[in-house]
């Protein structure tokens, strides 16, 4: 588990200006519909952040860094396989570097460098090593790492939604993509997965063990222990447990009974579909 090992709130006394340079040295893995580079850029907020998309060799990297670093006293180079680095950590690193008056400081992944020193020296000699928060520099190497990163980024997204009036029964059990829109007073229960471009209205109930992918759920509707994929559910409709709704449109005020399969089909407003019904329109 990744934990914050530096102070949660840090006000740096350093007056030195600095920028973040993210180097895409590795495959830019997408996590919850965003690349790690995009997540890191968003995390840095007001800190100037630049992304180097392609590096052919060390000389090419140096040349590209020179383009960005000349306007700042320092720069921090990060790589696009370290998703857990936070703005708080960056501020703590800069406080450390400026206090040490370091020209070049090695990180567990990446480095911090004084821009003038970098430009005037072809060979960088590190005079410090930042030894704190090692777990924040953890890299993504396999599927297990991706699952952990999903939970990490999902928690950030969930916090934003909680602040906007969305309710979660157990936030730690939910996976939620960054490009989901969720209305006020909606309740999301345990073990739900909501990924892709989803729009969920106000006063919706997403019950336990529900998966929603690239879909729209209207105001006042509920979905229970079912899968909704690339579909649109109208307002005030009920999707009962153990249903599979795919590439379909369900109108307002509908009830879909238990164990139904609805695929490539439109269900008109106000219809009640009996349990264990299969509605599949072929040819789509």
* Name given to the CATH homologous superfamily of the largest domain: Hexapeptide repeat proteins
Number of helices: 5
Parts with pLDDT < 50 across at least 5 consecutive residues: 1-14
Estimated helix fraction: 10-25%
User: And the CATH topology of the largest domain?
Assistant: UDP N-Acetylglucosamine Acyltransferase, domain 1
CATH class of the largest domain: Mainly Beta
Radius of gyration: 24 Å
* Strand order in the sheet with the most strands: 9-12-15-18-21-24-27
Structural class, by secondary structure, is: alpha/beta
Verbal overview:
The chain is α/β, with parallel strands linked by helices and 284 residues long. The protein folds into 2 domains: 18-137, Spore Coat Polysaccharide Biosynthesis Protein SpsA, Chain A (Alpha-Beta Complex), CATH 3.90.550.10; 143-280, Hexapeptide repeat proteins (UDP N-Acetylglucosamine Acyltransferase, domain 1). The chain is 22% helix and 26% strand. It has 5 helices and 28 strands. The chain has a 7-stranded parallel sheet, covered by helices on one side. Strands 10-13-16-19-22-25-28 form a 7-stranded parallel sheet. Strands 4-1-5-7-6-8 form a 6-stranded mixed sheet, sandwiched between helices. The two termini are 43 Å apart.
């Amino acid at each position: 588990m990744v934990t914050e090992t530096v102070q949660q709130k840090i006000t740096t006394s350093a007056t030195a200006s600095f920028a973040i340079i993210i180097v895409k040295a590795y495959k830019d893995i997408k996590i919850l519909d965003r690349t790690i580079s995009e997540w890191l850029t968003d995390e840095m907020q007001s800190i100037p952040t630049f992304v180097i998309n392609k590096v052919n060799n060390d000389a090419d990297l140096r040349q590209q860094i020179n383009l960005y670093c000349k306007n700042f006293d320092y720069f921090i180079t990060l790589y696009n396989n370290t998703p857990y680095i936070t703005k708080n950590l960056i501020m703590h690193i800069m406080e450390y570097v400026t206090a040490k008056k370091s020209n070049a400081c090695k990180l567990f992944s990446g480095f911090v460098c004084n821009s003038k020193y970098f430009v005037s020296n072809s060979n960088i000699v590190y005079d410090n090593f930042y030894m704190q928060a090692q777990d924040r520099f953890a890299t993504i190497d396999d599927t297990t790492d991706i699952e952990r990163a999903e939970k990490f980024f999902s928690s950030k997204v969930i916090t934003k939604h909680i602040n906007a009036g969305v309710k979660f029964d157990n936030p730690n059990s939910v996976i939620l993509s960054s490009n989901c829109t969720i209305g006020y007073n909606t309740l999301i229960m345990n073990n739900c997965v909501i990924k892709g471009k989803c729009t969920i209205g106000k006063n919706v109930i997403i019950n336990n063990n529900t998966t929603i992918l690239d879909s729209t759920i209207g105001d006042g509707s509920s979905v229970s222990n079912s899968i909704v994929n690339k579909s649109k559910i109208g307002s005030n409709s009920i999707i009962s447990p153990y249903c599979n709704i795919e590439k379909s449109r369900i109108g307002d005020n509908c009830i879909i009974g238990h164990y139904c399969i609805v695929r490539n089909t439109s269900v008109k407003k106000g219809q009640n579909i009996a349990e264990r019904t299969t509605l599949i329109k072929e040819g789509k």
